Amino acid sequence: MLNYIIDEVFSFREKKTLLHRKELLPLKIALFVASIAIPLATDLMIAVAYVVILWLVLLLLGLKRATLYIVFSTATLYLSLLLVALILQGDTGCIVRPLLTASATLSIGLLIFATLLPQHLTRFQILYLLSVIFNSVLREIRDAQIVLRARGETGFKYYLRIFTVSIEVALSRIDTLVDSLKARGIELR
Question: Among 53, 106, 127, 189, which has the minimal tally of Cβ within 10 Å of its Cβ?
Fold first, then answer.
């Protein structure tokens, strides 16, 4: 399932819509801050409406699988937390706000990742490097998933191999990046 979501996000990145403009970076940062502040600081009904509107925006943009994944994850997490709260005789209301915050942040984070190109972050070197590494690692993981599926691997072994491949790829990318920066005379501590 995550493979399809990663493909959907990368294909959306290639569309170059109005949201892909570099000038919208401050707005995206403001949306991210709002995705934390609104569910925590406003009335509960406003927070729920805000999260549902974010899901609808993602749907309208064409990120259907990603939206479905976020909605399903939110519902599953809510039911799990509700069950635990009921079993432990806790307050069921205190699980809603953090859950809405997590769902809103995930929705906005996905929107930012789908519309923010690494070239937009060249002024912020650390964020630019992290973005390049993250994109590279995701592409490598997607390629590894395709290869492992083609080999017919499934189940726990498949997910364990994906996990180990992702760690290996991330570490090798970081080593390559550090060597490249050192060759350019940039010393990292």
Answer: 189
What does the pLDDT look like over 134-155, one tens digit per residue?
A: 777 777 777 877 787 788 877 7
pLDDT in tens, 76-94: 988 988 888 888 877 777 7
**Region for residue 130 given its phi and psi (left: phi exceeds 0; alpha: psi -120 to 50; beta: otherwise):** alpha
Q: Which of 19, 24, 96 is nearest to 57 (CA)?
A: 19
DSSP 153: -
N-to-C CA span, the chain = 39
Cα 93 from chain centroid (whole Å): 26
Q: Are residues 101 and 172 in the same domain?
A: no
Residues 77 and 43 in one domain: yes
Amino acid at 28: K
Contact partners, residue 150, CB within 8 Å, separation at least 6: none
Q: Is residue 56 part of a domain?
A: yes
